[in-house]
Write a structure and sequence with these properties.
single chain; 430 residues; alpha/beta; Rossmann fold; Type Iii Antifreeze Protein Isoform Hplc 12; NAD(P)-bd_dom_sf
């Protein structure tokens, strides 16, 4: 759906222009983004912040940027001057990125909810478009940030290439054509182990050169729940059951599985979000129509026998596609995916082990909690704690058994942070 972005970028470059990107986070996603953009016309990552600046320096070098063109500083004016003369800036001060005059669009690629929330807030306050490679922050405070950005004439958006953005492309394609959309989903490449933690994930993490916490957040299902919460809030679709069904299937079987139970499927309702074990790394939409002629054409096109059909995209390129969202925000002032419907679903915290009074919650992919998607109505009824708020600043006030939801009534906040502050602002508006 990213029509003519290549031509628009080429025209921008031809006229001597460039979209200047500021990046926070030079991990795996950030490194890929820098290298991809260095191959593009009309765009450059002009400044990158990382807690370990050498990560950003190495990312630029691997992208082909020469040593003499990499300038490290924590000074605002010096950074702007360096960018203006054609260098790229490396800093360990993430707050510097949003304040730079020479940055047009900020990308957060940290995956840390608190950092993502702060960077989005700072970006909007400094009149920058914001692209979030941070679904964890988006599902926690995205509805508020999106509203703020629109009021300021800016774009706040999730990213192309991540599963929610790819699913949104399928949704918008089918919706524009007038199909009824039954279900939206993604593949997961392994069975959920709700109680995975950095220790159990360490071997796979070492093999993949990734953080054990990040791998654990995939294994315990939190990442999948968060991603489908993004889709729910963007489309108004909801999980059919808490945590979704998570069936094992191939692509061809999906249209029959995603029917109502009375028609031989698994669903209680249409317009749901879901994940499937066995079709990763793809995403899908299950569609149907009330028009006989449309069914005839779909059968002729070998889309199946109906009445349901699957639209399937077999890949997503993660941060390598993020530049498309950057360009769309800057050139067209349009988002890739935002929580158009506010919060219709939430990913809430569930105890990974028995938790005792005084215990601290650690982090996503940690030892204490995993995320489960529920409807916003169920979240309110349970007073459940959003997974994006967890951290060592939260202590348990009472026992929570393994597998039980963690509620606001179970915890106390030892200190305020930016994401908690924004969440309270958002809840006050609901």
């Amino acid at each position: 759906m990213m029509l003519n972005i290549n031509r628009k970028l080429a025209e921008l470059a031809k006229d001597g222009g460039s979209i200047k990107v500021g990046l926070v986070g030079a991990g795996q996603m950030g490194r890929g983004l820098i290298s991809q953009i260095e191959s593009m016309k009309g765009m450059r990552v002009v400044a990158t912040a990382d807690i370990a600046p050498e990560n950003a320096v190495n990312a630029y070098k691997k992208a082909g940027v020469g040593d003499t063109d990499i300038y490290e500083t924590q000074d605002n004016d010096k950074a702007d001057q360096a960018i203006n003369r054609g260098s790229v800036v490396v800093t360990k001060d993430a707050s510097l990125i949003a304040s730079l005059k020479e940055v047009d669009v900020i990308v957060d690629a940290t995956g840390v909810p608190t950092i993502g929330a702060k960077m989005a807030w700072d970006g909007i306050m400094n009149q920058k478009h914001v692209v979030m490679l941070n679904a964890e922050a988006d599902v926690t405070v995205g509805p508020l940030l999106s509203k703020m950005a629109r009021a300021a004439g800016l774009v706040y958006t999730g990213t192309a290439g991540d599963e929610p953005g790819c699913i949104m492309e399928l949704h918008d394609f089918a919706d524009a054509l007038g199909f009824e959309i039954v279900a939206l989903g993604k593949g997961k490449n392994n069975q959920v182990n709700y109680f995975a933690n950095p220790d159990t994930a360490r071997e796979e993490a070492l093999q993949k050169g990734a953080s054990p916490k990040m791998i654990a957040s995939f294994q315990d299902g939190t990442k999948t729940m968060v991603e489908m919460t993004c889709v729910a809030n963007a489309t108004g679709f909801i999980p059919d059951i808490p945590g979704m069904h998570g069936v094992k299937s191939g692509v061809r079987e999906l249209p029959d599985i995603f029917r109502l139970q009375e028609h031989g499927g698994i669903l209680h309702q249409h317009k749901i979000v879901e994940y499937v074990d066995g079709i990763a790394p793809g995403v899908f939409a299950i569609i149907t129509s009330d028009k006989e002629e449309v069914h005839h054409e779909m059968r002729y096109l070998k889309m199946g026998n109906g009445p349901h059909y699957v639209l399937y995209r077999p890949y997503h390129l993660c941060s390598l596609e993020t530049p498309l969202s950057v360009a769309k925000a800057y050139l067209d002032q349009e988002p890739t995916i935002i929580p158009y419907y506010g919060s219709v679903a939430e990913t809430v915290a569930v105890a990974k082990k028995d938790l005792l009074p005084g215990d601290a919650l650690d982090c996503i992919g940690g030892f204490t909690a995993f995320g489960r998607i529920v409807t916003a109505t169920d979240k309110q009824r349970m007073n459940a704690l959003p997974i994006g708020l967890i951290g060592p600043h939260i202590r348990l006030k009472r026992i929570v058994k393994q597998g039980d939801y963690i509620t606001y009534d179970d915890v106390e906040f030892m200190e305020e942070n930016i994401i908690l502050h924004l969440r309270r602002m958002m809840d006050a508006q609901m």
